[in-house]
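Can anyone check this?
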Amino acid sequence: MLAQLYHDVFLEKRDTCATDNEYDGAHWGARISAIFVIMATSAIGTFFPVLASRYSFIRLPSWCFFIAKYFGSGVIVATAFIHLLQPANESLTDECLTGPITEYPWAFGICLMTLMLLFLFELIAYHIVDKKVAELGQNAQSHSHFGDEALYTKKEFESEEDEEAKLETAPVTDQQETRSNYPSHFAHADEHQDAEVIGSPVEDKNKEHYYGQLLNVFVLEFGVIFHSVFIGLALAVAGDEFTSLYIVLVFHQMFEGLGLGTRIATTYWPKGKRFTPWLLCAAYTFTTPIAIAIGLGVRKSYPPGSRKSLLTNGVFDSISAGILVYTGLVELMAHEFLYSNEFKGEGGFKKMLTAYFIMCWGVGLMALLGKWA
């Protein structure tokens, strides 16, 4: 079946699909402006959370990050189902397609395969991290999958010893406030490290937690960027619907960037990787504008409704959907709501419900944008 599908996609000569696009030459100035406007809104969404979490002159209250974090989670989940999986299914079930592609719901199948493959990768990553920790001599009491790190650091790369020293000398009320403002993430229990291992390689978060965080963030970035390429190409060659698509994509990219940027901002980055978050933000910021520019360059020859375009868009949207479904449901919902320490203690359930309703707003608004794009 897969061999025949490969033949159908790459070797089939017969093409009954469209060989042109709807580009009509109108709104040329607006099409050029889309490159810069969407670049700006994408940058606002991704870079601002990182900047606000690092520099005191634009430091925001913790509740702003709280809203951005869970609103962004909702955006990612809605993007997976409304903006990726459904368009992928439409592309792979287009009436002009023939052959094995029409004999199976490939959009959902590819999404499912991607999801299962990601789960395998995470199992392997957990095994590697646990093995590294075991080799360093960490005991069971300090065991943690991908760590118990502070989400919003007050200094760019403040060490745990400095933070603990500040907490020990601070009043009790200040300690409680600080810990509530900077909750832990990816922690599955109240885990700690014994005093005798502090300062040893075992205590080094760079080695213990960085690989898991890197995997999660890069997987999310990978899924989002694939999607951004195709919507940029689609906007460049759009016809009568260009104006409405332009407006919707401005908000779409900003909301999606907010979801990605918040995740990047709330990830612990060691000193040796200080440029990584900026590179991730820049990659998202420039992907769609570059795709728009390429689309304008091939505006008279790029056929978004052709057989190969439909199959390519459908396959990659399905892969991206699988990535974001897994990331959204497992990492952004299950881990954060059920397994983290953020909602434990007095008032934790009320805080959890607040986060849930904020996430619902993110889901709802992003799903609503799917009516137009």
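Reply from J.R.: I decoded it. The longest helix spans residues 307-339.
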